[in-house]
Amino acid sequence: MTGGAGFSKQTEQSLKDNHALGKIRKKLKFSDQCSTGENADLNDLNDSKRHRYQRKAALSWMKWIVFSFLIFIILILIFFT
Prior knowledge:
The chain is mostly helical. The chain has a domain at 43-81. Helices cover 72% and strands 0% of the residues. It has helices spanning 5-24, 42-79. The chain starts with a helix and ends with a helix.
């Protein structure tokens, strides 16, 4: 049920390659600086807030565009069919 012997061998080789990559890559180290809370840099927090509000505004604008487009398509389908 594995799709043939070639598929099984390919999967085994892929697993070995991924395991070898895990040994090669450096481990992730967490920084001592905290990006939120008491130890946060005020400029980083302000930048984060600004980014969130810009993203929220962009998504809101996109939502209205998609909604308007759908209403337009529905009206076309109603009046021309």
